[in-house]
Amino acid sequence: MKTNTLKVLVLFAILAIASGGYVIYYTSTYITPTFAPSQTKAPASSVTVAFPVALTDPPSVPQGTTALWLNYSGIELITNSSPIFMNTRGSVNLLKLVNVSEVIAVFNVSKGVAVNQIRFFINSAEIEINGATYPVFLPSGILKIPVNNATQGALVDLQPHVVVA
C-alpha cells in the first residue's frame, strides 16, 4: 500500500511497564534544604528531595516508523501523602530513547514521601511512517504508570505497541 493512500488509525494498544519497569534514577538522595543560611538546622517538614522522572527505550512500532511523538501537558505523582502535580508541557520522540534516558520533569518531594504512581497527561501523539505523519489514537488522555514506593526518582520504560488499523 502507498502511504499517501493508507488511512492510518494508530492505537497505543498497550501502554504498560514491564514488571519492574521503573528503576531508581539516582542512587543517592539529593536533599535541598529550604531554610536560610543563618539557620543551623532545617525544620523537619521543609526538607525536600529532588525526584526526577525520566523516559527511556523505544516502543514497538510498525516497519518504516521514524518518529513517535508524545505531547504532554502535565505530570502528576501519586504519593503516600498527597498528589503532586506539575503543569509542564513538552514533547518527546520515543524513538530517540534507544539506550538513553531523557529527564522530562524534576519534582521536589518531601523527604520520606514515596511515589506509587506517575500520571502523564497526554494532549496528542503522532507517528511518522515512511515520511508521512499520522495522528495516534490513545484510549485515554492519561497514562497511569504504577511504581513501587519510589523515593529518589523514576526511570520509566514505556512500552506502547503501535498497531496500524
Characterization of the model:
- This protein is mainly β and 165 residues long.
- The protein contains no helices and 13 strands.
- Strands 1, 5, 6, 7, 9, 10, 11 and 13 form an 8-stranded mixed beta sheet that branches. Strands 2, 3, 4, 8 and 12 form a 5-stranded mixed beta sheet that branches.
- Strand 9 and strand 10 form a beta hairpin.
- The protein is elongated, with a radius of gyration of 18 Å.
- The relative contact order is 0.34.
- The N terminus is likely disordered.
Write a compact overview of the structure shown.
The chain is mainly β.
Distance between the termini: 13 Å
The Cα radius of gyration reads 18 Å
Structural class: mainly beta
**Unreliable parts:** 1-44
Q: If you average the pLDDT, what whole number results?
A: 75
Compute the number of strand runs: 13
Largest sheet: 8 strands, mixed
Helix content: under 10%
Output the helix-strand order. Answer: EEEEEEEEEEEEE
User: Which shape, going by the Cα principal axes?
Assistant: elongated
Number of helices: 0
Strand content: over 45%
Features:
single chain, 165 residues, mainly beta, eight-stranded mixed beta sheet, five-stranded mixed beta sheet, 13 strands, disordered N terminus
Give the topology.
Blueprint: E1 10-12, E2 22-23, E3 31-32, E4 48-56, E5 65-79, E6 84-86, E7 90-93, E8 101-110, E9 115-129, E10 132-137, E11 142-150, E12 154-156, E13 162-164
Parallel strand pairs: 1-10, 4-12
Antiparallel strand pairs: 1-13, 2-12, 3-4, 4-8, 5-6, 5-7, 5-9, 9-10, 9-11
